[in-house]
Specification:
The complex is a heterodimer of chains A (115) and B (114). Chain A has 115 residues and is mainly β. Helices cover 0% and strands 50% of the residues of chain A. Chain A is built from no helices and 11 strands. In chain B, the strands form 4 sheets. A 5-stranded mixed β-sheet of chain B has the order 2-13-10-5-6, with no helix packed on it. Chain B has a 4-stranded antiparallel β-sheet with strand order 3-9-8-7, with no helix packed on it. Chain B has no helices and 13 strands. In chain B, a hairpin with a 2-residue loop joins β7 and β8. The chains are: A mainly beta (115), B mainly beta (114).
């Protein structure tokens, strides 16, 4: 089944404890992206990647890192999480992001709580 | 930044009522326009898309027409059901450095009562 898989789905952690949210897609998509969803703010882009080894900042990159060493994986890294990073996170992918014509496939979401 | 304006919710309707969720955008010449839907506890999924000006996208009774002259892509449904309760996102791709980056409106929550 074609899908985007995120892990963990739920996580409670403490301030300053590094964590990684993994994202993997099995559709050979070139474009991958991370979003956070907060009440009243909608969906905001954190980072995106047009292809392997190419990543760019989105609207809210502060406090996050990403890497794209292989096409299928796009992990989101929080080096020193803080409570304002408590949010619902979504990973998404599409065949390519540059054309603007492709549909995004989303993961099921990862709910992160930072105490 | 975000170049799309989407009506704020929540929108609360009774079953079988007519639905309109407004979406307007600021740029021109989009390759496509999209509406995504997020059902409770799930990720977003495509609801419909339009691939050029004056094109109408439709799915599950929902429709939206890419209106270049009014820079709008309003979502409509003639008769909503309880199962349509969800959050709806207008999603025009934003031009950036010769490419287009997917972007999203703030989302409109729809609540349909029996």
């Amino acid at each position: 089944e074609a899908q985007v898989t995120q892990n963990p789905r739920y996580l409670i952690t403490v301030t300053g404890k590094k964590l990684t949210v993994t994202c993997s897609q099995n559709m050979n998509h070139e474009y991958m992206s991370w979003y956070r969803q907060d009440p009243g703010l909608g969906l905001r882009q954190i980072y995106y990647s047009m292809n392997v080894e190419v990543t760019d900042k989105g609207d809210v990159p502060e406090g996050y890192k990403v890497s794209r060493k292989e096409k299928r994986n796009f992990p989101l890294i929080l080096e020193s999480p803080s409570p304002n990073q408590t949010s619902l996170y979504f990973c998404a992918s599409s065949p390519d992001g540059g054309s603007g014509a492709n549909v995004l496939t989303f993961g099921a979401g990862s709910r992160l709580t930072v105490l | 930044g975000n170049s799309v304006t989407q009506m704020e919710g929540p929108v609360t309707l009774s079953e079988e009522a007519f639905l309109t969720i407004n979406c307007t955008y600021t740029a021109t010449g989009y390759p496509s326009l999209f509406w995504y839907v997020q059902y409770p506890g799930e990720g977003l999924q495509l609801l419909l898309k339009a691939t050029k000006a004056d094109d109408k996208g439709s799915n599950k009774g929902f429709e939206a027409t890419y209106r270049k002259e009014t820079t709008s892509f309003h979502l409509e449904k003639g008769s909503v059901q309880v199962s349509d309760s969800a959050v709806y996102f207008c999603a025009p791709p934003v031009p950036s450095g010769g490419s287009y980056i997917p972007t999203f409106g703030r989302g409109t929550s729809l609540i349909v009562h029996p």
